Amino acid sequence: MLAFVARRLVATVPVLVLVSLGVFLLIHLVPGDPVDVMLGESQDPVAREALRKELGFDQPVYLQYVNWLGHVVQGDLGRSIRTHQTVVDNVAQRLRPSLELAVGAMLIALIIAIPLGILTATHRNSRVDTLGTGFVLFGVCMPNFVLALLLIFVFGVSLHWLPIASYTDPLQDPLAGLKALLLPSLTLGMALAAVIARTLRSSLLETLTEDYVKTARAKGLEESAVIAKHVLKNALIPVVTVIGLQFGTLIGGAVITEYIFALPGVGRLVVDAVFARDYPLVQGVVLVITVGFIASNLVVDIVYGWLDPRIRYT
After folding, report:
1. Which region, left, alpha or beta, applies to residue 23 given φ > 0 means left and ψ of -120 to 50 means alpha?
2. Which member of 39, 167, 250, 294 has the greatest number of CB atoms within 10 A?
3. Is the separation of the CB atoms in 265 and 96 below 8 Å?
C-alpha cells in the first residue's frame, strides 16, 4: 500500500508541472495587462514600466515561468499583485468555506442517492422506479443557478426559514453556519444525488444478476440481507469513482453557487483573480485545486481495495 501511494505521489509531479504550465500560458494569453488594471491606462508610462519591472513582467514569459516554478518548489506560491497578501494565505482563508460546501453537498447527495438507488434497483419498472427516474432527470437537467433561485425564493423569501447570500463561520456559530450552508449545499447536492443514484441503480442491476447473488437467495437469505451483505459493497465501486471525481470538482468548481449565495470560497476567489489579472493568485489557486483533485482520486483508489479484496496494489 505504501509503495502504491508513493508511486502515485511521484506520478503526480509531471501532472502538476503540465497543469501549471498550461495555466501559466493561458492566463498570459488572456487580453489585458495587470499593470494597467492596477494603475489605470491614464497613468504615467514611466510608472507603468517601473511597476512592470518590479513585478517581473518585463522578462520573457518562459523566464517568468521558470522563476515562478522555482519559488513553488520552495513552497512559495508568490503574492497577490492586487492585495499584496501571500497566495498561501489567500487560499487558506477561502479553502475552508469551499470544503464545508463540498462536504455538505456530498452528505446531502449520499443521504438522498443511496436509498433512492437501492429502491429503484430493487423495484425495477415499478412506480417507485418511475418516481426515482423522474427525480434523476430533474436533478440532471435542472441548472444549478435556477435551482438556487427557486430555493432562495421558497425557503428564504417566502418562508423566511433560512438566510440567503450570507456566510457565518460554523466554528464561531455552529447553528448559524449550518443554516447559511444549507441552501447552497442543497443546490449542489440535488444534482449530485441524481448522478450518484443513477450510477448506483445501474451498478446494482448488474450486480443482482451475478451467480453469487442467486446462490445467496437460494440459501434462503432475506432480500434485505442479500442487498446489504452481498450486493451493495460490490456495486459501490463505480459509485465511489463518481463520488471522488465530483468531490474534487466541488472544491473549486462551485463558482456560480458561491456567487449566488455570497460564499467566500475558492471558486469565487479564482474568478475575481482572473478579472483582476492577478497572475500569481490564479496560478496558485489552480495548483491547489489540482492537488485536491489528485488527492481525492488517490483516496478513491485506496477505497477500491477495501471494497474489492481482489484488487491488489502491485
Report:
1. alpha
2. 250
3. no
pLDDT tens digit string along 270-310? 888 888 888 888 888 888 888 888 888 888 877 877 776 66
99-126 pLDDT per residue, tens: 999 999 999 999 999 999 999 998 888 9
Rg, Å, the chain Cα set: 24
Angle subtended at Cα 99 by Cα 97 and Cα 104, rounded to the nearest 5 degrees: 95
- Homologous superfamily (CATH) for 94-307: MetI-like (1.10.3720.10)
Q: What b/e readout covers 15-30, taking b as 16+ CB neighbours within 10 angstroms?
A: eeeebbeebbeebeee
Distance, in Å, from the CA atom of 145 to the CA atom of 188, rounded to the nearest integer, reads 10
Which one, of 269, 270, 268, lies nearest residue 255 by Cα?
268
Report angle CA 146, 147, 153 to the nearest 5 degrees.
Answer: 90
3-state SS, residue 38: helix
The cell numbers describing 258, all together, are 458561491
- So where are the chain's domains? 14-73, 94-307
How far is the C-alpha of 60 from the C-alpha of 298, rounded, in Å? 36
- Residue 96's CB is within 10 A of a number of other CB atoms, namely 15
CB atoms closer than 10 angstroms to residue 130: 12
